[in-house]
Amino acid sequence: MSKYSVSEKGFYGDFGGAYIPELLFPNVEELRQNYKQIIGTDDFQNQFKSLLKDYVGRPTPLYLAENLSEKYKTKIYLKREDLCHTGAHKINNTVGQILLAKALGKRRIIAETGAGQHGVATATVCALMGLECIVYMGAVDIERQAPNVARMKMLGATVVPATSGSKTLKDATNEAIRDWINHPKDTHYIIGSVVGPHPYPDMVTQLQSVISKEVKAQMLEKEGRELPDYVIACVGGGSNAAGLFADFMDHEDVGIIGVEASGKGVDTTESAATTILGREGIIHGSKTLLMQNTDGQITEPYSISAGLDYPGIGPLHAHLFKTGRGKFVSITDAEAMEAGLELSRMEGIIPAIETAHAFAIFKYLEFKEDDVLVFNCSGRGDKDLETYRKYFGY
Amino acid sequence: MNRINQALAQDKKLISIYFTAGYPELEDTTEVIKRLADAGTDVIEIGLPYSDPLADGPVIQKSSEQALRNGMSTRKLFQQLQGIRDTVDIPLIVMGYFNAMLQFGVEDFCKACEAIGIDGIIMPDLPIDIFERDYKALFETHGLKFVPLITPETSEERIKTIDELGDSFVYMVSSSSTTGGEQGFGEEAMSYFKRISDMNLNNSLMVGFGIKDAFSFEQASRFTSGCIIGSEFIRRLTNAGMEGIAPFIKSLK
To answer: Which residue from B68, B103, B125 is facing A21, i.e. has the nearest CB?
Structure first.
């Protein structure tokens, strides 16, 4: 058992667990009792690998970004999750969970989505497998991510606006959880990140860990060694980061860097930098770090990127942060937008704004010339063109 | 004897009302409690509003958002409830979400409840295994009954485990749904009420979710000790104000 993997009770150190109403217990318990066994079967693994290869387009390339490397005087690789079918790493998880849902005999799929990437990835696999799909999305996010809403509808999903609270990801998650409470038997809830009650953080990490497994093999091929010096990813809930970090966490000489969105700055009220502004508490059934007031009311986060404005982080990341195993950096809207533009101009890759946050760390961190850095290029920027366009005035 | 157990020992079906503290106006909390008690309510659940009430439906969530905007907080609620025992002697239960309790400090929360004269606590998202391991002794020290929930999906074995954790009543969720739905109970719900009643648990049973009038009250209390009404009460309070409280309670009898 590694220091950073989940305990039998679902905890990463002090974080995790399943703080859920009794109403959700049967749903979560069914999953907890079955997920490891199902994922472990040859049948599941064969189908999962085959779909990842032929449908998602894996393995994704590990690309040496020479121009960026030259500028920052270090060796920069991009793990091109943006080239996955549907445009982000999210589909690794939804392919896995839809197979799990089928194995459990579920007919109806629900999901929450922030930027819409997870919603699209869920609608996609539901279309593929012929299952009913309902996606909860904050009313505000529906406005700012219109192309993804259209994609979900085209794929046959029903998009339900969440109109409570801040009308963003956390509220969409609340609505999805309520739906699940109301449909305990026939419905599987595909959570899109490494958040929520146990076993979700572990299950999603396992399904996303294909990213780090591929990086290891590709590193060996390109660099003659499996381990890079640093793995770097943006963290909202933290699924792309968990996928990249998974197989490197136990190698203490691999630096782990999580990049959070500080929105308009951590000294303003408009931020989503959980490791700086958060305290220990419970959100969506998990004990973790979250942004809250002294009373424990969950604060409405802000980031220019819809995928990062979640008021918590997954319990694994809270554990990496608290133990000092992971280093967390926060990046403002403006820094992320500039980094997105730089990646576009220098490498010809327009990243999702979430992803762009990771590429802004050079302002704050220094690397040696012979360091090998692997960035998770987690998503592409198509969905964000409108935001980029407005920001830069194109 | 704890006031909850005294109430349960009576030979009558108990009317329990849930309301959101600090709603509709911040300072309405004690007025609502007094009016409920005067109207003959048997048990009151004082809802500590939470930003993300997962187990509640839209009516309670909306009232919670309003209460929070009004300035309701854990400290404010405990302030408002100072001296409530001078005028109200029916059981009072605080219902909220565990993060609020955790941030206040679980022990401090229990102490504050004891000092006020609170009789029990309902925390839907405090799982029974964690309650038993970390907090059961603390609740007992402060004379607070822990009220666990069960649903139609809860297995018999788990119901027996849950039954051992408390010694007042079990909150029986009428259907596997968040609060505020349903109209009258069908055969399936009725047979569930009877099935659990036939288990002869140590705890009494109170049914919540989906009760809105004398008809559904009678149905849900036929095999149990009484009912908990939340969403419907808040709807009435929203529409008819304080003056609507007494007529609503009387309409249930």
So the answer is: B125
Q: Which of A178, A283, A285 sits opposite B178 (nearest CB)?
A: A178
Number of domains in chain B: 1
CATH entry, A57-87+209-392, from 3.40.50.720, 3.40.50.1100, 3.90.650.10, 3.40.50.12500: 3.40.50.1100
A298 interface with B at CB cutoff 8 Å? yes
Is A378 among the residues known to form the active site? yes
Which CATH number does A19-52+90-203 carry?
3.40.50.1100
CA distances from A66 to A77, A232, A234, B226 (A): 8, 17, 21, 72
Helices within chain B (DSSP H only): 3-9, 29-38, 58-70, 74-81, 98-104, 106-116, 128-130, 136-141, 156-163, 187-197, 214-221, 231-240, 245-251
d(CA A161, CA B219): 35
Catalytic residue among A106, A170, A378, A383: A378
- Peptide bond before residue A199 is cis, with ω within 30 degrees of 0: yes
Domain CATH code at residue B203: 3.20.20.70
pTM, two decimal places: 0.95
| ipTM of this complex prediction, to 2 decimal places | 0.92
CA distances from A289 to A255, A313, A317, B21 (A): 21, 6, 9, 27
Cis preceding linkage at B127, omega within 30? no
Cβ atoms of B120 and B72 within 8 Å: the answer is no
Boundaries of CATH 3.40.50.1100 in chain A?
A: 19-52+90-203, 57-87+209-392
The residue among A355, A351, A283 whose CA lies nearest residue A315 is: A283
Contacts of A294 in chain B (CB under 8 A): 103
Cis peptide, bond prior to residue A61, ω within 30 of zero: no
Domain holding B32, by residue range, is: 3-251
CA distance A197 to chain B (A): 11
Q: What is the pLDDT along chain A (394 residues), one digit of tens a residue?
A: 578 999 999 999 999 999 999 999 999 999 999 999 999 999 999 999 999 999 999 999 999 999 999 999 999 999 999 999 999 999 999 999 999 999 999 999 999 998 899 999 999 999 999 999 999 999 988 987 888 999 999 999 999 999 887 788 888 999 999 999 989 899 999 999 999 999 999 999 999 999 999 999 999 999 999 999 999 999 999 999 999 999 999 999 999 999 999 999 999 999 999 999 999 999 999 999 999 999 999 998 999 998 898 899 999 999 999 999 999 999 999 999 999 999 999 999 999 999 999 999 999 999 999 999 999 999 999 989 989 999 999 8
Asked if the Cβ–Cβ distance from B51 to A165 is below 8 Å, we say yes
Residues in chain A within 8 Å Cβ distance of B51: 165, 297-298
In this complex, is the C-beta atom of A253 within 8 Å of any C-beta atom belonging to chain B?
no
Measure B14 CA to nearest chain A CA, in Å: 23
